[in-house]
Amino acid sequence: MAAKKCVNCDLVSVERVVNRWIVDYNLSLALELFKKQKFEEFNEVRNVLSVVMKRPVEATSDMPLKIRMLQFLGRINEGENLALIYDPGTPVSPLESALLLLENIMEAFGIPQQDCEDASNSLKVMIVATFIKNGNFDKAAQMLNKFFPKPVGLVRNILEGLIRQKNKTSNSFSFQLFKQEMLAFVQRLCYFDVPFSYRAAQELLTMRLEVDGIEEAEEIEQEETNATPSPQKNPVPFQPCKHLIILRSRLESVYNALSEDEKTFAQLEQEVETEIQDRDGLHLEHSSDSETQDDLNAERADLPQRNVCSPMEASPAEQPPQTDDGPQTRARSLSKEHYTVARLVTEPDSQSSSQYTTGLEELETEAGTEKPPQVPDGSSEKELQCPVSDDETAIPTPKRPRRSKKTAARAAASVLESSSDSEDNSVEKRKEMQEETPPCQSNKSKSRNSGTSKRHSSGLQDDYITPVKRPVRQLSTGSSKKKSSSTRRSISPESVGESPITESCLDSPSGPCHQHPVPQKSSTPEQAFPNTKWKSLFRTAKESKVTWNNEEMEFLLKDTKGSNESIKSNSGHKRKWTDQETEMLKEGVKTFGEGNWSKIKSYYDFKDRTNVNLKDRWRTMKNLKMV
DNA sequence: TTTCGGGTTATAT
DNA sequence: ATATAACCCGAAA
C-alpha cells in the first residue's frame, strides 16, 4: 500500500535521493578498496557508480570533487599500463592523463597549487619511473626534462642515473607506495565521511548479532532470507527490525516464555502491536523526542518537526544502544515499534506516511552532509519515502547476513567479488547495462576494455569535457615491456579499427559509439549525450541541485569500463604478469611470507591467478633475481 | 586443500 | 631455433 502512494509520487525525486546514498556509499567504498589494494573491486565499484550516475542523482556539493578524485585514482591505478593510449593524436600514458586531470581538477575546484604540490611531484616522478621500468628510456628522459627542467635535485639525479644506465629493474620507486600516497592525497583533499548507509548497515548488523546472542538466530535468519527475495513486501523484510525492537521493549518479560514455548516473533509482534495501538497518537511526539537524543542523527535538530525516524533505518540503528533506560526509552521504543511492526506488518495507516517522511529527512541530512536541505515538497516526499525507507532497510538485510562484524565496506566488497568472477563477465555485464550499446564486436576482447583512462588523458581540458570519447587504445609501441606481446595480438585488430566501439559503448552511455566522431567539447550536457534517452535522463539529473557535469559522468563511465586489466589475456593463452601484480606479489610475500600463496592471493585481489600461479611467478622472479 | 618441484607449452627474439 | 615466462601435473603434507 505504501508502495502505491510512492508510485504516485515523484519517482524521480525519490530516485535521486536514493541514488545519492548509493553514490555516497560507493564513493567511500571505492576508496576503502583502493586502500586495501583490492583494485579489481575498486574497479567494480566504479562500475557501479558509473551505472548509478546514469540515473538521476541528487548530488551534494562535494560529490563532484569526489567523483573526479575517484577518476584520478582510477588513472593512477592503471598507471603502469602504458599500453593504454586514449588519444591517438596525442598519446599520453595513464599517469600523464592523471596529472592532466589533477591540474584540471585544481583549476575547476580552485584548489591551491600548494595543496597538490607533493602529489603532483610524486606523480611526475612516477611518470618518469614508469617509463624507465618499461624500458622506454627515451620517453623517460623526455618526461624528466619536461617535469624537472632544473638539472638539480636528488630525485632527478636518481632518475637520470637509471635512464643513463638503462636500468629498468630498479626498485627505488614502488608503485604500490605511490598508489597509497595518491590515496592519502585524495583523502586529504576530500573528506570522506562515513556514509549514512554504511552506518545504518553496520548498526543493523550489530543488532542482529546481539539478537542472535540472545535469541535463536535461526528464526531471524529465516525471516531475513525470506525477505531478501521480495524486498518489496514490507512485512517480511522488516520483521528483523521488529524483532529487534520487540526484544528491547518486550524481551525481558517475554523472553522466558519465548524460549520455553518457542513463541514466534510474530506472536510477540502482535503483542507489541496491541500495545502500540493503545498508545497510538503519542508515537509521533515520542519519536521526535527520542530521536533528538539519538547519536546517529545529530542533524535532526535541523528538522525538529519531522524527527521521527523512518522505521527501518532509524530503528535498527538506534535501538541497540538504548537497551533499557527509563520511561523515555520505553515510550521511544514503543513508538518505533509501532512504526515498524504495526505499520508495516499489519496495516499501513495514514500516519505511516508522515512517519516515514520524517525518517527520510533524517537520513538525507546525515547522508547528505553538507547538502542543502532540499526538502522540496513535503507531501510528495512523504509518500515517496515509504518505499525508500523500505528499500534501504531491505537492501542491507539481505546483502550482509550477519556474516560478520566486518565493516560494511568489507562485506560489500566481498559481495562484489563474488559477483564479479572474471573480468570478462564483468565487462559484459557492464555492456549489458548500457543498453544502447550496439553489438560491439569487441566483446571478445575482454582485455581491451581495460582502456580505462583513455579519455581525457591527452584531451586535457577540452577532451576532458568532451563527451566524445575517442579513447582509442593503441598498442603502446615499445612502451609496454613484455606484456605487450599478448596484448597486441588481441588488441590491435580490434582496438585499432574500432577501439571506440568498446569503449564508446561503455563510455558513452550517453552517446553511442557512432556518435563519437564529432568531438563535442560542449559544456552543455545535452550535447554530450546525443542519445535521446540519455538526454532525458541527464536533464532529469540536471534538475537536481547539483548537476553532474558531462565530464564527471564521462570520467566515471570511461574509466570504469576499461579500468580493469589492460592486458587481459585470453583464457587459453599465457598471461604476462603486470608490474602491478608483481608488486602485489612482492608485498604479499613480504607480508605473509613465501609459501603462503593462498593468503597472499586472498588478501590481494589477484584476478585470475591461482595460488600456483603466484608460486610460479615468485619462482620466476627469483630466477630473474628480481627478489 | 595447499604447496612444491619437475615438466610442458606458448611466446618473443 | 632457442630461451624462457607462464602454465600444468602429480606428489606430498
Automatic annotation (TrEMBL):
Alphabetized UniProt keyword annotations: Cell cycle, Chromosome, DNA-binding, Nucleus, Telomere
Record region (Disordered): 271-295, 310-532
Residues annotated as domain HTH myb-type: 574-626
Coiled-coil regions, chain positions: none
CDD domains, alphabetized: SANT_TRF
Record flagged with keyword Nucleus: yes
Composition skew (Low complexity), residue ranges: 409-419
Cellular location(s): Chromosome, Telomere
Source taxon at top rank: Eukaryota
Primary location recorded for the protein, binned into one broad class: nucleus
Composition-biased stretches (Polar residues): 320-332, 439-452, 520-532
Basic residues biased stretches: 399-408
GO process terms (BP): negative regulation of telomere maintenance via recombination; negative regulation of telomeric D-loop disassembly; protection from non-homologous end joining at telomere; protein localization to chromosome, telomeric region; regulation of telomere maintenance via telomerase; telomeric D-loop disassembly; telomeric loop formation
GO CC aspect terms: nucleoplasm; shelterin complex
GO molecular function: double-stranded telomeric DNA binding; G-rich strand telomeric DNA binding; protein homodimerization activity; telomerase activity
Keyword Mitochondrion: no
Compositional bias (Basic and acidic residues): 276-289
Protein name per UniProt: Telomeric repeat-binding factor 2
